[in-house]
Amino acid sequence: MRRRTVSAGSLEEILEATAPLARAAEQPGEAAGAAAPAAPAAAARRQQVLRDEFDFELPRGYVDDEGVVHRHGAMRLATARDELRPQIDLRVKENPAYLSVVLLSQVITRLGTITDVHAGIVERMYATDVAFLQDFYRRVNSEGHTRAAVTCPHCDGGFEVDLSGGRLGES
Questions:
Q1: pTM of the predicted model, to two decimals?
Q2: CA–CA separation, 91 vs 47, rounded Å?
Q3: Residue 84 Cα to chain centre, angstroms
Protein backbone atom coordinates (compact mmCIF):
# COMPACT_ATOMS: atom_id res chain seq x y z
CA MET A 1 0.00 0.00 0.00
CA ARG A 2 1.47 3.33 -1.03
CA ARG A 3 1.17 6.28 1.30
CA ARG A 4 1.36 9.86 0.27
CA THR A 5 2.86 12.44 2.56
CA VAL A 6 2.30 16.14 2.35
CA SER A 7 5.38 18.25 2.79
CA ALA A 8 5.37 21.86 3.86
CA GLY A 9 6.21 22.93 0.31
CA SER A 10 3.17 21.22 -1.22
CA LEU A 11 0.93 22.51 1.56
CA GLU A 12 2.00 26.06 0.71
CA GLU A 13 1.19 25.40 -2.95
CA ILE A 14 -2.30 24.30 -1.97
CA LEU A 15 -2.80 27.42 0.14
CA GLU A 16 -1.63 29.64 -2.71
CA ALA A 17 -3.96 27.93 -5.16
CA THR A 18 -6.95 28.48 -2.88
CA ALA A 19 -5.94 32.00 -1.82
CA PRO A 20 -7.84 33.83 -4.61
CA LEU A 21 -11.09 32.22 -3.43
CA ALA A 22 -10.38 33.21 0.18
CA ARG A 23 -9.51 36.80 -0.83
CA ALA A 24 -12.73 37.08 -2.86
CA ALA A 25 -14.73 36.09 0.20
CA GLU A 26 -12.93 38.68 2.33
CA GLN A 27 -13.25 41.57 -0.17
CA PRO A 28 -16.91 42.09 -1.14
CA GLY A 29 -16.10 44.73 -3.77
CA GLU A 30 -14.05 42.29 -5.81
CA ALA A 31 -16.23 39.28 -5.09
CA ALA A 32 -18.39 39.83 -8.17
CA GLY A 33 -15.37 39.73 -10.47
CA ALA A 34 -13.80 36.76 -8.69
CA ALA A 35 -17.04 34.81 -8.50
CA ALA A 36 -17.47 34.72 -12.27
CA PRO A 37 -14.58 32.30 -12.88
CA ALA A 38 -15.65 30.18 -9.89
CA ALA A 39 -19.23 29.78 -11.17
CA PRO A 40 -18.30 27.66 -14.22
CA ALA A 41 -16.09 25.50 -12.01
CA ALA A 42 -18.98 24.92 -9.59
CA ALA A 43 -21.30 24.11 -12.49
CA ALA A 44 -18.75 21.63 -13.85
CA ARG A 45 -18.53 19.93 -10.46
CA ARG A 46 -22.30 19.59 -10.31
CA GLN A 47 -22.34 18.04 -13.78
CA GLN A 48 -19.71 15.48 -12.75
CA VAL A 49 -21.91 13.97 -10.05
CA LEU A 50 -21.54 10.21 -10.09
CA ARG A 51 -24.62 8.35 -11.21
CA ASP A 52 -24.94 5.54 -8.66
CA GLU A 53 -28.35 4.05 -9.46
CA PHE A 54 -29.60 2.70 -12.78
CA ASP A 55 -33.16 1.80 -13.76
CA PHE A 56 -33.86 -1.40 -15.66
CA GLU A 57 -36.73 -3.36 -17.15
CA LEU A 58 -36.68 -7.15 -16.88
CA PRO A 59 -37.38 -9.17 -20.04
CA ARG A 60 -40.03 -11.36 -18.33
CA GLY A 61 -40.55 -9.93 -14.87
CA TYR A 62 -40.68 -11.27 -11.35
CA VAL A 63 -44.03 -12.76 -10.31
CA ASP A 64 -44.71 -12.34 -6.58
CA ASP A 65 -46.89 -14.55 -4.36
CA GLU A 66 -50.05 -12.61 -5.30
CA GLY A 67 -49.38 -13.04 -9.04
CA VAL A 68 -48.29 -9.44 -9.62
CA VAL A 69 -45.58 -9.06 -12.28
CA HIS A 70 -42.74 -6.66 -11.40
CA ARG A 71 -40.64 -5.64 -14.41
CA HIS A 72 -39.20 -2.21 -13.59
CA GLY A 73 -36.50 -1.84 -11.00
CA ALA A 74 -33.29 -0.11 -10.00
CA MET A 75 -29.77 -1.29 -9.30
CA ARG A 76 -27.10 0.70 -7.49
CA LEU A 77 -23.38 0.56 -8.08
CA ALA A 78 -21.65 -2.18 -6.12
CA THR A 79 -19.15 -1.44 -3.37
CA ALA A 80 -16.14 -3.52 -2.40
CA ARG A 81 -18.15 -4.72 0.60
CA ASP A 82 -20.93 -5.94 -1.73
CA GLU A 83 -18.43 -8.05 -3.63
CA LEU A 84 -16.67 -9.37 -0.51
CA ARG A 85 -19.70 -10.19 1.63
CA PRO A 86 -20.91 -13.15 -0.50
CA GLN A 87 -17.50 -14.82 -0.08
CA ILE A 88 -18.29 -15.51 3.59
CA ASP A 89 -21.91 -16.53 2.95
CA LEU A 90 -22.42 -20.23 3.76
CA ARG A 91 -24.75 -20.68 0.79
CA VAL A 92 -22.00 -19.46 -1.54
CA LYS A 93 -19.39 -21.66 0.15
CA GLU A 94 -21.63 -24.69 -0.40
CA ASN A 95 -22.53 -23.71 -3.97
CA PRO A 96 -20.33 -21.11 -5.72
CA ALA A 97 -23.04 -20.58 -8.36
CA TYR A 98 -25.13 -18.93 -5.62
CA LEU A 99 -22.70 -15.99 -5.57
CA SER A 100 -24.60 -14.06 -8.25
CA VAL A 101 -27.90 -14.53 -6.39
CA VAL A 102 -26.47 -13.04 -3.18
CA LEU A 103 -24.64 -10.27 -5.03
CA LEU A 104 -27.69 -9.23 -7.06
CA SER A 105 -29.89 -9.23 -3.96
CA GLN A 106 -27.52 -6.69 -2.37
CA VAL A 107 -27.42 -4.21 -5.24
CA ILE A 108 -31.02 -4.28 -6.49
CA THR A 109 -32.69 -1.45 -4.61
CA ARG A 110 -36.18 -1.75 -6.04
CA LEU A 111 -38.17 -4.23 -8.10
CA GLY A 112 -41.59 -2.86 -8.99
CA THR A 113 -43.21 -2.05 -5.66
CA ILE A 114 -40.81 -4.29 -3.73
CA THR A 115 -38.11 -2.33 -1.90
CA ASP A 116 -36.74 -5.20 0.23
CA VAL A 117 -35.10 -7.35 -2.43
CA HIS A 118 -33.45 -10.40 -0.85
CA ALA A 119 -31.88 -13.61 -2.12
CA GLY A 120 -35.22 -15.46 -1.97
CA ILE A 121 -36.69 -13.06 -4.53
CA VAL A 122 -33.72 -13.40 -6.88
CA GLU A 123 -33.96 -17.22 -6.51
CA ARG A 124 -37.55 -17.16 -7.77
CA MET A 125 -36.78 -15.03 -10.85
CA TYR A 126 -36.82 -16.56 -14.31
CA ALA A 127 -33.38 -17.57 -15.60
CA THR A 128 -33.61 -15.04 -18.45
CA ASP A 129 -34.17 -12.22 -15.96
CA VAL A 130 -31.23 -13.34 -13.79
CA ALA A 131 -28.99 -13.52 -16.88
CA PHE A 132 -30.16 -10.03 -17.87
CA LEU A 133 -29.39 -8.70 -14.37
CA GLN A 134 -25.95 -10.33 -14.35
CA ASP A 135 -25.10 -8.63 -17.64
CA PHE A 136 -26.60 -5.35 -16.44
CA TYR A 137 -24.51 -5.56 -13.24
CA ARG A 138 -21.35 -6.17 -15.26
CA ARG A 139 -22.04 -3.27 -17.61
CA VAL A 140 -22.90 -0.79 -14.88
CA ASN A 141 -19.99 -1.70 -12.58
CA SER A 142 -17.30 -2.41 -15.17
CA GLU A 143 -18.10 -0.10 -18.02
CA GLY A 144 -20.02 2.62 -16.19
CA HIS A 145 -22.96 2.75 -18.58
CA THR A 146 -25.93 0.68 -19.73
CA ARG A 147 -25.46 0.94 -23.50
CA ALA A 148 -24.66 -2.07 -25.65
CA ALA A 149 -23.46 -2.18 -29.26
CA VAL A 150 -25.67 -4.41 -31.41
CA THR A 151 -25.83 -5.39 -35.05
CA CYS A 152 -29.01 -5.77 -37.08
CA PRO A 153 -29.25 -9.39 -38.31
CA HIS A 154 -30.95 -8.27 -41.55
CA CYS A 155 -28.91 -5.28 -42.74
CA ASP A 156 -25.73 -5.74 -40.67
CA GLY A 157 -26.06 -2.12 -39.51
CA GLY A 158 -24.55 -1.35 -36.14
CA PHE A 159 -26.12 0.82 -33.46
CA GLU A 160 -26.37 1.20 -29.69
CA VAL A 161 -29.26 0.29 -27.41
CA ASP A 162 -29.79 1.26 -23.79
CA LEU A 163 -30.34 -1.78 -21.61
CA SER A 164 -31.80 0.24 -18.75
CA GLY A 165 -35.37 0.04 -19.98
CA GLY A 166 -37.70 1.02 -22.74
CA ARG A 167 -39.32 -1.21 -25.28
CA LEU A 168 -37.89 -2.32 -28.60
CA GLY A 169 -37.30 0.61 -30.90
CA GLU A 170 -37.23 3.17 -28.10
CA SER A 171 -34.13 5.04 -26.99
A1: 0.59
A2: 41
A3: 17
